[in-house]
Amino acid sequence: MQFIDTHAHLYDKAFDEDREEVIKRYREEGGAELICVSFDMDSIPKAIDLAEKYDFIYASVGVHPHDAADVPENYLQVLADYAQHPKVVAMGEMGLDYYRDLSPRAVQQKVFVEQLNLAKDIKKPFIIHDRDAHGDLLGILRREGIGEAGGVMHCFSGSWEMARECMNMGLYISLAGPVTFKNARQAKEVAVKIALDSLLLETDCPYLAPEPKRGKRNEPGYVKYVAQCVAELKGMAPEDLTAATSVNAKKLFNLK
Ligand code: NI
Question: How far, in Å, from the CA of 203 to the mean position of ligand 1?
Answer without folding.
Answer: 9
